Amino acid sequence: MGKKKIQIGLLGLGTVGTGVYKVIGRRGEEMEPQVGARLEIKRILVHNMKKERHGIDQRLLTDQWEDIVKDKDIDIIIEVMGGMEPAKSMILEALAAGKHVVSANKDLIAEHGEELLEAAQKSGTDFLFEAAVAGGIPIIRPLKQCLAGNEIDEVIGIVNGTTNFILTKMFEEGMDFQEALDMATELGYAEADPTADVEGLDAGRKVAIMASAAFRSRVVFSDVYTEGITKITAKDVAYAKEFDSLIKLLGVARNTAQGIEVGVYPMIIDRNHPLAAVRDSFNAVFVHGDAVGDTMFYGRGAGEMPTASAVVGDVIDIARNMQYHCSGRIGCGCYRTLKLKDFGEVKNRFFLRMQVRNEPGVLAAIANVFGGHKVSIERVIQRKAKAAKAELVIGTAAVKEYHMQDALKELGSMDIVSEVSSVIREY
Questions:
Q1: Is residue 106 a part of any domain in this protein?
Q2: Radius of gyration of the chain (CA)
């Protein structure tokens, strides 16, 4: 066995950092027999030393990075500051100094995870980041360890609580997008600037991390096609209900014979699919492996204590490794270099809603355009909106994205089509 006391440096004391402080303080005595050593936060790096922080031992605070990285007694560093810099430089410096690192920084890991993991391997240390995806839901460790005996071909998830809350309110309470977003902001689910959430960027970073872990091949955020929920309307919700379905913002990663597909976009899913039951700010990740079949991981995807739970779980894992002198045993895992499929080659089914002239021959002309671009129509609904115009809803078979985009471009140039109001993929 190793040390009797393992000391920790905490970088950041915002929502997640405060949660980590609480969990380690609350469960310190229980952790000692679990780990074989006492876990203790020795120093906390903060930006503003003068800020009043209730319930925090002020003697632990410092605004000097050197107080942590040069302290030989600190074994583990927890980074919960967020952002690219100085977080990246600090993590690299900590790893080079032989310190283990736990991070919840999805932005950094989705872009520079490979560099950080290689630095950890070089120094024989652990770099763990369970909290970077889906908050308190264990998913990175299961993908890397529990499901390591599987060839995983699909990971689909609701990994952004803000957008799931908004869509739930639109479906269950008849709110429009802006009204639901305002409620999410008021309740603290959405940031003052919600762009990263509602445009799919936050989910895209998480999907890049999950795809890398699941398929054992590097995927970065720039590889992920992203589309948000800002264009979803009450009419789209009504049609989804009519089809006995819901709309969810899904992160989709598939490992196919032609390459890895990765994207984030709203999808219409059948009400009987397990992900359809995931409401409000909850997250869920659906995984398919060749041996295990279908599995789903469900829970709180963000927040002070759920995210702190994942961070502290990583800390305990590292502490156990230290006690048995086996650090660095679970590293990058991306030993493959798989092709990434161009998103234009990805096949999806589509729901289309458009405003057209209300006259004979319109449907035939539109069907002719689709046929010319290899788009097969499975369902047509025509509703009379006004005397001169009608609303046309079309459901398609699975079609390559670039064929659909070409068809939409031609439709947009036709006089008989005044507007393509909605384009939503169907699962």
A1: yes
A2: 24
Q: Do 372 and 378 touch, CB atoms closer than 8 A?
A: no
Query: Six-digit token pair at 370?
Result: 């689709």
Segments forming the whole domain that contains residue 357: 344-426
Q: Which of 242, 265, 300 is the last residue of a domain?
A: 300
Q: What is the pLDDT of residues 27-52, one digit of tens each?
A: 888 888 989 899 999 999 999 998 98
Find the catalytic residue in 169, 206, 248, 341.
Answer: 206
| Residues 148, 52: Cα–Cα separation, whole Å | 46
Q: What is the dihedral of CA 138, 142, 146, 152, to 10 degrees?
A: 150
Mean pLDDT, to the nearest integer, of 218-247?
96
Residues 6+ apart with CB under 8 A from 7: 40, 41, 42, 71, 73, 74, 75, 76
| DSSP 3-state of 202 | helix
Peptide bond into 86 cis (omega under 30): yes
Read off the pLDDT of residues 82-139 as tens digits, 9 standing for 90 and up. 999 999 999 999 999 999 999 999 999 999 999 999 999 999 999 999 999 998 999 9
User: 423 has which bridge partners?
Assistant: 352
- For residue 206, indicate whether it is catalytic: yes
Q: Would residue 351 count as lying in a domain?
A: yes
The count of domains in the chain is 3
Q: Measured between alpha carbons, how far is 333 from 93 in angstroms, rounded to an integer? A: 22
| pLDDT exceeds 90 at position 4 | no
pTM confidence score: 0.93
Q: How confident is the model at residue 385 (pLDDT cuts 50, 70, 90)?
A: low
Please say whether the beta carbons of 171 and 247 come within 8 A: yes
Cβ burial, residue 178 (10 Å; 0-12/13-18/19+): exposed
Identity of the amino acid at 29:
E
Amino acid 1: pLDDT: 57
Asked if 194 contacts 181 with a C-beta cutoff of 8 angstroms, the reply is yes
Q: Is 263 helix (H, G, I), strand (E, B) or coil?
A: strand
